[in-house]
Specification:
This protein is α/β, with parallel strands linked by helices and 329 residues long. 28% of the residues lie in helices and 26% in strands. The chain is built from eight helices and 13 strands.
Length: 329
């Protein structure tokens, strides 16, 4: 699909060549974990606020420019939601050092910083905040949604919930330990807790091993990340701090009060995103919830344009409208 870029009074607008609909956003920034995080702020056209808002960021090393999360943001905006779509700390247009360093705990804290930011905006309804995450960030929103009562709806798309069942936690002690570490722990990496730098993906695991090994990952990252001006780099480090209680969305499930939509790939090939474990996590959620299982593997919902994208984005828009009470006129 061709698109025309138009600059209007400092706002970036995209006009789809097959449509007359103008999708615009402003570049915004907010403080996060000692650095400045940047993203796109979308407001629906010809509608009055305050608006319900969806806070979004991408998964494993991906950026918000041209790697399909922006297409979901456009659909949500057209459906009547404000959207904050930002790059994780250390990635894309956001600041932060070391560059290209991933850390689930810091990224989850980034969601809280984003909630704080949108809660300060007069155009936003502070009682109608939703979180969206894909893959690694899909697991992060489950943690944040269990802690922060400002979150009313969670959309977790092919969430990375791990390869093993969460440890038994009948008295909630492990969850409380995880929350305490999230809030107060020293989560920065050390040489002993840092993997890499390594390529994110590689077609030759023998000669050039990478952080993500499936060929489907190689194909998607090279096709989308390799496009012009995405800011994506095929190199990253991964930090796994020595937490007393490891990061596991399964420990959070029964503590979530928000309404949850979980979209799981029927056969997820990505290490760390076992479909069976994601289903177990879903079963433990006691709040209002919905599970949708999709074909296409881990990356199927991140191809645009595609039938799977259309199906997923419509289901997510319908779910958000229902549970954030959006009515379009």
């Amino acid at each position: 699909m061709k698109k025309i870029v138009v600059l209007v009074f400092g706002t970036i607008c995209y006009l789809n060549a097959m449509s007359t609909e103008l999708i615009n956003y402003k570049i915004v920034e907010f403080p996060s974990q000692g650095a400045t995080v940047r993203g796109r702020f979308y407001l629906p056209e010809n509608k009055s606020g305050p608006f319900s808002i969806l806070i979004m960021t991408h998964g494993f090393t991906a950026t918000i420019t041209g790697m399909v999360a922006d297409k979901y943001a456009e659909e949500f905006c057209k459906a009547g939601f404000a959207v904050l779509l930002y790059d994780h700390l250390n990635f894309g247009i956001s600041d932060g050092l070391p560059r290209q360093e991933m850390n689930k705990w810091l990224q989850a804290r980034g969601y809280v910083d984003a909630i704080n930011y949108v809660s300060s905006l007069p155009s936003i309804n502070k009682n109608k905040i939703a979180l969206w995450g894909d893959s690694m960030s899909g697991g992060e929103v489950l943690l944040v949604g269990s802690i922060d009562e400002r979150v009313k709806v969670i959309v977790a798309q092919v969430p990375a919930c791990g390869e093993k069942t969460a440890p038994d936690d009948k008295d909630g002690a492990l969850y409380n330990s995880m929350v305490n570490y999230f809030r107060n722990g020293e989560v920065k990496g050390t040489p002993e807790t840092t993997i890499g730098p390594l390529p994110v993906v590689s077609s030759d695991q023998t000669g050039t091993p990478s952080l993500k090994k499936p060929l489907t990952a190689f194909r998607w990252f090279i096709e989308y990340g390799g496009r012009y001006n995405t800011g994506w780099k095929n190199s990253a480090t991964f930090v796994d701090p020595n937490a007393v209680t490891p990061f596991h969305p399964g420990l959070c499930a029964k503590h979530i009060k928000a309404t949850v939509l979980m979209m799981v790939a029927t056969e997820d090939e990505m290490e760390g995103a076992s479909a069976a474990i994601s289903r177990q996590v879903y079963e433990q959620i006691t709040s209002q919830k919905k599970l949708i299982e999709m074909d296409g593997g881990h990356f199927g919902l991140l191809y645009y344009p595609s039938e799977l994208f259309d199906k997923a984005s419509k289901a997510q828009c319908d779910f958000l409208k229902r549970h954030l009470h959006i009515v379009n006129h």
